[in-house]
Amino acid sequence: MVTAAPAPPLPTAIRDRPRPSVRLLGPNWYATVMGTAIVAIAGAGLPVRVPGLGGLCRVVWAMSVLMLGAVLAARAAHWARHRDRARADLLDPAVAPFHGCLPMALQAVGAATLSVGAEVIGVRAAAAVDAALWTAGTLTALLTAAGIPVLMVVRHRIGPGDASPVWLLPVVAPMVSAATGPALVPHLPPGQGREALLLGCVALAGASLLGTFLMLPLIFDRLVRHGPLPAALTPALFLVLGPLGQSTTAAGGLADAAAYAAGVPEAAARFASVVYGVPVMGFALLWLASAGALVVRAARRGMPFAMTWWGFTFPVGTCVTGAAALSRHTGLHAFGWLAVGLYGALVAAWGLVAARTALGLARGTLLTP
Question: Is the Cβ–Cβ distance between 327 and 339 less than 8 Å?
Fold first, then answer.
């Protein structure tokens, strides 16, 4: 009788290699959803028509929907199986701010569904999906914007050099609500509901803007007093672009909604959005240049790939939508070309970061100790 030879034992290095686990899947993974959805949103809002871009945006939108479902399921498993780690993340001042990514992921996918997915599932269904995700995202945005700073004061122990751009994530989430909410205004019947949504978005923008004003000086003070961020954290400098580009986008959307639903003269509404948006976009470009220089410096010194690289996507995307709003309201081609140029950078960054993330998942290095 012939018997099969026993299989040789696995090498020790392979046998002892840690296995990927949802235990290590933190709230920062929602950034993959945000960074993917913004590619579709920004592409749909460009002031110029690019052949084939519509199809690409629809594919990317579908990807963002699938990614949102996957990350939500994985995070639910994380909380169900590893509650000790989930609670520890809330008490970790370096991880807790990333909980602000959840509401922004919900809102981004909702906005992409209305702006891009409507061509696939219909306007009515897309508006319903967007309304549901915007509502859930806004509620969680308010929870994180209020709750994370409370944890920072009461439970976190923060040193003099611990300030980080990731502190902006919880406070910028309401600004995403303010930027995406105006698109729902035309889908509501005239009356109290429409006006409440419009003014609610204004209040959300104000809350986020004032919170940003509190955080930015702390971040700049840390950079000046303690030098550049660690190499792996350097891409987080791009997060500062988020509230800048998103508030410019919100100003443009609120101006359009106010002219449509509140009887505000269109010229006055657009003028107000331009007066706010132009100087803020100027500062965003200045910060982009400074942050880019620091990233180049870190890259020359061996900046490793980390999930912070997703900071190259969503914040830049908000600058694309902000520049597109300024182009729409001013008619200046310069803003249109700025939006196109930034969008090219966004797509390149998304392609690089998505590929590196997929490779890390395939190799099992991103979810192992």
Answer: yes
Predicted local confidence at residue 8, as pLDDT:
54
Cβ atoms within 10 Å of 288's Cβ, excluding its own = 21
Q: Are 273 and 251 in contact (CB under 8 A)?
A: yes
Residue 164: left if φ>0, alpha if ψ -120 to 50, beta else—which one? beta
The token pair that represents 114 in the structure block: 């209305």
The label of the residue with tokens 């002892």 reads 16
Digit-coded pLDDT (tens) for 252-310: 999 999 988 878 899 999 999 999 999 999 999 999 999 999 999 999 999 999 999 99
* CA gap 155, 134 in Å, rounded: 30
- CA 50 to chain CA centroid, nearest Å: 24
Nearest to 109 by CA among 173, 198, 36: 36
Q: Would the CA dihedral through 222, 224, 225, 228 be positive or negative?
A: positive
